[in-house]
Automatic annotation (TrEMBL):
Protein name: Cytoplasmic protein
Pfam family, one: YlbD_coat
Chain spans, region Disordered: 111-134
Length: 134
């Protein structure tokens, strides 16, 4: 495998992160991005007080179930407020088209004419009685 050579400062930051596993947890919990942390590290340095406080905020404040429920609801409401109705409509249309395509493929495998949306009963003989005219 060919690996792109990283800038020396990025390599130093990676080494810093390996020595401070709380930073990885910070990113995985969604509290910060790698870009933000790298910029802070680059500007503030390794000895800044910010790195000592990472991961300790939650340990000092225990959560109660009511607070977590309220926090969950506020997160949901915040996401609903941030939604763009036009973008949601586009996503719904794309999903609808994808489902229609999947239904079309399934109906082709099931035997043909069901793609038109009308399911025909099995055809028997046109005249169920086999009497002939004499």
């Amino acid at each position: 495998m060919t690996q792109k050579k990283l800038h020396p400062s990025v390599l130093k930051f990676k080494e810093f992160v390996k020595n401070n596993p709380k930073i990885i947890k910070e990113v995985r919990d969604g509290k910060a991005t790698w870009q933000e942390l790298y910029e802070d590290w680059y500007l503030l340095g390794e000895e800044d007080q910010r790195w000592e406080t990472i991961g300790t905020e939650k340990a000092t404040e225990p959560e109660t179930s009511n607070e977590s429920k309220g926090d969950w609801m506020s997160n949901i409401m915040g996401m609903v407020k941030k939604m763009d109705p036009n973008q949601m409509q586009n996503h719904i249309n794309n999903l609808s088209q994808a489902l229609g395509a999947i239904q079309g493929v399934i109906s082709q495998f099931q035997g043909g004419n069901a793609a038109a949306g009308s399911i025909k009963p099995p055809e028997g003989p046109k005249n169920p009685f086999g009497f002939r005219k004499d």
